[in-house]
Amino acid sequence: MDRMIYTAMNGASQSFDQQAVVGNNLANVSTPGFRAQLSAMQSVPVEGDGVPTRTLPLAVTPGADMTTGPISATSRALDFAYNGNAWIAVQAKDGSEAYTRRGDVQVDKNGMLNIGGMAVIGDAGPILVPLDSQVSVGSSGTISVIEAGQKADSIAEVARVKLVTAGRGQLERSDDGLFRAPADANGVVQPLPADETALLTSGALEGSNVNPTSAMVDMINSQRRYEMQMKVISSAEENEKSANGLLAIR
Description:
Blueprint: H1 2-27, E1 40-45, E2 55-60, E3 71-73, E4 80-82, E5 86-91, E6 97-100, E7 106-107, E8 113-115, E9 118-119, E10 121-122, E11 125-126, E12 134-137, E13 142-146, E14 156-160, E15 163-165, E16 172-173, E17 179-180, E18 200-202, E19 204-206, H2 212-249
Antiparallel strand pairs: 1-2, 3-19, 4-18, 5-6, 5-15, 7-8, 8-9, 10-11, 12-13, 13-14, 16-17
Helix pairs in contact: 1-2
């Protein structure tokens, strides 16, 4: 009976973890450039003494869906859509270099370009532009500005965003939702080199590649699996009560 409860409890726990992954995808349906996190269930053999054929379910996240999201025009100079397999480099919260397809760039009160609060990296680190300046972006990622009060012919190039090219399998999704190069044999993650041929389109945004309908179906299926496991636990409890009643009669 204990084994029945343990098996059902483990299944319910894994279903709950899978719900968290699907829920995160649903929460980012409107996040520009978001890549849906994949989830799956697999059977894992139980190690140790016992029945060799016994297995337990395990929720795994094999990676991210790298399908390109829909592109929409915004006419905003600091909205970027990346061509092909191009990614933009940003400074993550922990200070490391990471990569994203998100393109809704903002300028903070200090003049720093950022995406979701993370600094956009250029040739010489985080990119700063003069406050209240008119910013334009070239297809190669060059940042040009016309400072406040200056004429149009005073436009000057101030930086170039770092773009890298990475195909399927060359980046790994981290827990913070950003992507990084795989660690080397020593466990060190080396930044990818800038790709001078990588291009972006200014005035457009790539949307999330999450399919809301499919994500809702996955959420319902995961919820039903969880409820089924809880019913098994309830059945095990009822069986144990019945067995105790029979023993009491004897």
